[in-house]
């Protein structure tokens, strides 16, 4: 993995709640909308980020992430730039079914291999970092994307679960090769 050459600090925000979240179903690459609560969560995240410097907002093209990003972007007067490769992992035949007990399956039936997914996210980071080279970028995506980022940046301390619309800051390490730091906003 290229660990996104020229990496700088950035913010990450998972989308707000969806009906599949409520029902405990795996949405994956299926395009589902935010619930009313999910819209409220996105609005609260926008409030939390209202006084944070953000120069660019990029999002997965899936409507749950894109809509969350639009709500935050409205507070900052910014457009949302979608990057297709930040869409959630394709879970194949598991999509729309009850959330599996383990998401560690490297090759779900009919779905995207974990290594391929992480490589896709890693490649998309290069484009994101080109747009957010000032260290003030916000990426709005999915729980799987957050997990992929943690894998890419060597974050293995078990803090790889993220709630809906919870802003997280990613900071590069001070020492080359060390894991990145994450903190809640």
Quick synopsis:
The protein has one domain: Phosphoglycerate mutase-like (Rossmann fold, 3-Layer(aba) Sandwich).
Question: How would the blueprint of this fold be written?
Answer:
Layout: E1 10-14, H1 19-23, H2 36-48, E2 56-59, H3 63-76, E3 80-82, H4 114-131, E4 137-141, H5 143-152, E5 168-171, E6 181-184
Parallel strand pairs: 1-4, 2-3, 2-4
Antiparallel strand pairs: 1-5, 5-6
Helix pairs in contact: 2-3, 4-5
Defining key terms:
185 residues; alpha/beta; Rossmann fold; 5 helices; 6 strands; globular
Q: What does this protein structure show overall?
A:
With 185 residues, the chain is an alpha/beta fold. 32% of the residues lie in helices and 14% in strands. The chain is built from five helices and six strands; from the N terminus they run E-H-H-E-H-E-H-E-H-E-E. Helix 3 links the parallel strand 2 (56-59) and strand 3.
């Amino acid at each position: 993995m290229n660990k996104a050459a020229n990496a700088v600090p950035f913010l990450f925000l998972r989308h707000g709640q969806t009906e599949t979240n409520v029902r405990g179903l795996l949405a994956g690459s299926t395009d589902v909308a935010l619930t009313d609560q999910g819209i409220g969560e996105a609005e609260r995240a926008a409030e939390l980020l209202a006084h944070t410097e953000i120069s660019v907002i990029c999002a997965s093209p899936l409507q749950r992430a894109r809509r969350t990003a639009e709500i935050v972007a409205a507070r900052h007067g910014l457009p949302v730039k979608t990057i297709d490769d930040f869409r959630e992992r394709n879970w194949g035949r598991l999509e729309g079914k009850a959330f599996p007990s383990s998401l560690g399956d490297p090759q779900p039936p009919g779905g995207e291999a974990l290594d391929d997914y992480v490589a896709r996210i890693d490649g998309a980071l290069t484009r994101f970092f080109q747009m957010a080279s000032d260290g003030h970028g916000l990426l709005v995506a999915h729980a799987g994307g957050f997990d992929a980022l943690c894998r890419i940046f060597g974050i293995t301390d078990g803090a790889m679960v993220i709630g809906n619309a919870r802003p997280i800051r990613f900071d590069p390490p001070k020492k080359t090769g060390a894991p990145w730091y994450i903190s809640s906003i």
